[in-house]
Amino acid sequence: MNTYEAAGVDIAAGERAVELMKSKVARSRRPEVVDDASGFAGLFDASFLLRYERPILATSTDGVGTKVMLAQQYGKHDTIGIDLVGMVLDDLVVVGAEPLFMTDYIACGKVVPERIAEIVGGVAEGCRLAGAALVGGETAEHPGAMGADEYDLAGAGTGVVEASRMLGPERVREGDVVLAMASSGVHSNGYSLVRHVIKQAGLSLDAELPELARPLGEELLEPTRIYSLDCLELARAVEVHAFSHITGGGLCGNLARSLPSTLDAVLDRGSWTPPAIFDVLAGHGEIGQESMDRTFNLGVGMAAIVPAEAVDPALRLLSERGLPAWVLGEIVAGSGNAVYR
């Protein structure tokens, strides 16, 4: 007799995964979360929006890309969810929005409850770090479409910003200063090239390379730094004109998105030393500087554009919060590009 289980879908395993993740998800709870006994929807009390004059909702959706393949290969699943949150919620803060809540979606070849709970636990931890609530999600078993140990994940988030406090290119002025905020490593972009380098160079994820203080796999799976609370606190404390989340396309490509068409950001490449993992990738992969610039964050995960008088208090605040930051460049007359001097 044919059954769903015979087709490869284990309903009991899915139910156990839900039970295992409940306590992890609870750690991301915000006061506005409303319980839905049915579990069909995530509920969030929006009455707090009444304190806004003109609340603008912001939304973002993303995945983690092929970094999940390294997580599967290395057998480490508890931080890939943090990467997902970084990719989704840190996009919201670029316009000045406070992340409110997020939902996730995991597709897998076979539900292994403990593994799913680890993945969702990472998402919940990322939400906690961003000040948002994980209000729901879905785990789908796709036997035949994916291998038993394969999975992919995606998510969507919602935030809110007062219309008069929205940040963006229209606020940027000539004479402003670009501040860099350090990345925790490669974050979640460029992993197709990372995996190509590993394969071409014959490297093992267990390799202990002289340039690195830990095995290669651990270095590459370092979770994305979450900037949401740091950026929101910075925008409350000093005048901020724009943020730029440094993801796919690299530093110059993303920073240009936060510039008006009449101004350029001129950056000082000598103002920082990229983490060693980027030298490892460039060396073993024989990757030129232009490709490195266009593919990776090179140690800068977020940038802020502030007036010159805000530089010192901004750097002081970020240092107090434990986030390395420095002056990266300046805003000059131009045509909407970010370039190195």
From TrEMBL:
Alphabetical keyword list: ATP-binding, Cytoplasm, Ligase, Nucleotide-binding, Purine biosynthesis
Q: Does the keyword ATP-binding apply?
A: yes
Question: In its keyword annotation, does this UniProt entry include Cytoplasm?
Answer: yes
Report the locations given in the UniProt record.
Cytoplasm
Broad class of the protein's primary localization: cytoplasm
Q: Kindly state which reaction or reactions the protein catalyses.
A: 2-formamido-N(1)-(5-O-phospho-beta-D-ribosyl)acetamidine + ATP = 5-amino-1-(5-phospho-beta-D-ribosyl)imidazole + ADP + phosphate + H(+)
Q: In which pathway does it act?
A: Purine metabolism; IMP biosynthesis via de novo pathway; 5-amino-1-(5-phospho-D-ribosyl)imidazole from N(2)-formyl-N(1)-(5-phospho-D-ribosyl)glycinamide: step 2/2
Which SUPFAM superfamilies does the entry mention?
A: PurM C-terminal domain-like, PurM N-terminal domain-like
Q: Superkingdom of this entry's organism?
A: Bacteria
Swiss-Prot/TrEMBL GO biological process terms: 'de novo' IMP biosynthetic process; adenine biosynthetic process
InterPro entries recorded: PurM-like_C_dom (IPR010918), PurM-like_C_sf (IPR036676), PurM-like_N (IPR016188), PurM-like_N_sf (IPR036921), PurM_cligase (IPR004733)
The PurM-like N-terminal domain covers which part of the protein? 56-161
Q: Which GO terms describe its molecular function?
A: ATP binding; phosphoribosylamine-glycine ligase activity; phosphoribosylformylglycinamidine cyclo-ligase activity
Q: Where is the PurM-like C-terminal domain?
A: 173-339
Q: Which Pfam families match?
A: AIRS (PF00586), AIRS_C (PF02769)
Record family assignment: Belongs to the AIR synthase family.
This protein's name: Phosphoribosylformylglycinamidine cyclo-ligase
Could you read off the lineage of the organism from its UniProt record?
Answer: Bacteria, Bacillati, Actinomycetota, Actinomycetes, Streptosporangiales
| Name of the coding gene | purM
